[in-house]
Amino acid sequence: MRLWWLTPWLIMLAGCQAAPSVLPAAEPRPAPECRWEAGDTPAPDWVRRALTALENEGFVVRHTALGLGLVSADRTQVLPAYGDFHDDWEGSGFYGGYGVGVGGGRGGFSTGLMIGFGGGVGSVTRDATRLERVSLVADADWVRLTRDIQVIDWRGDLRETRSASDADFCLRLRQVMTATAAPAVGEGP
After folding, report:
1. What is the pTM of this model?
2. Angle at Cα 144 formed by Cα 181 and Cα 67, nearest 5°?
3. Is the alpha carbon torsion for 8, 10, 11, 16 positive or negative?
4. Which residues contact 165 (CB under 8 A, 6 or more apart)?
5. Measured between alpha carbons, how far apart are the two ends of the chain, in Å?
6. Three-class SS of residue 80?
């Protein structure tokens, strides 16, 4: 039997597939405080100030381009006991348990607490990592700062990602950068 009669239905179903009406964007949107006018300060000076401020905050600078006015940095933090709360087989990263029982030879009552330390598994090897990335771009007119945060579990799976360009972080970093004079070219720490 030929299935020619399925062709119109397949064409109709294929027509229902459409592109999204809105393309993905950073959520939440970056705060307005993460973009400011450069003023009289040239872009290379903003880059140098950002280098100093980010290193003082514990970031590791990964890339700089003075000609482009770009700085990229990141820092990591181990998150102990971060687990998949939707997975019944995976605990919080720590071993332990408790129990209550009824029974025994004479109908007694018992309670207990168990604490255990495993070898090669547990919170030592199952901690997630929080990765925080910051980028600053400066030109003759504007300075823009972006930050995002990712949580990567012990398996290497991405568990959480979000834009973290909030007003508090941007204002604090901007205050540090404007209070710090940029080191001259060739000056070392």
Report:
1. 0.63
2. 70
3. positive
4. 26, 30, 31, 34, 145, 146, 147, 148
5. 82
6. coil
Give the bridge partners for 72, in sequence order. Answer: 63, 135
Tokens of 72: 């990229």
Asked if 155 and 166 touch (Cβ cutoff 8 Å), the reply is no
Per-residue tokens: 33: 């405080």
Residue-averaged pLDDT of the chain: 77
Contact 83, 93 (CB under 8 A): yes
Rounded to an integer, what distance in angstroms lies between the CA atom of residue 131 and that of residue 75? 6
CA 80, CA 78: separation in Å to the nearest integer? 6
Name the residue with tokens 């990263």.
Answer: 93
Cβ(92)–Cβ(102) below 8 Å: no
| Integer Cα distance of 128 and 64 in angstroms | 28
Render pLDDT for 103-124 as a digit per residue (tens, 0 to 9).
555 655 556 655 555 444 444 5
Q: In this structure, what token pair is assigned to residue 85?
A: 């709360």
Tokens describing residue 113: 């607490």
